[in-house]
Amino acid sequence: MNALVMVAHGSRRDEANAEFIALVHNVKVAAASQYDFLEYCFLEIASPSLTEAVEHVIAKGAKTISVFPYFLNSGNHVLKGIPETVDRLINQYPDCTITLLPYFGTCEGIAELISRQIPGEA
User: pTM higher than 0.85 for the full model?
Assistant: First the structure.
């Protein structure tokens, strides 16, 4: 069984966290055939944590887990915090394959996606 765990920063604003949770739900619907489980998590402030989310899908039977950082830039969380947590989880759960995917800001087609949202000159 395979899982996708999407991780965002987390906010003190419940509304901001709810926006991310809604996005993850929409991805879950769109990617239903690709993953048995799709979970959200946060690095700071909000719950569940990345560790909790990964442990949750493992408890449900996931053996292959992809971690997708929902971050635009390669800041400290993307370069250090998330990889360190994923490495720890890889060592803690050797019977699972846990893969850290490239962060959102590096996704193919993101420039085109953004350009389609910007109105052209009048």
Answer: yes
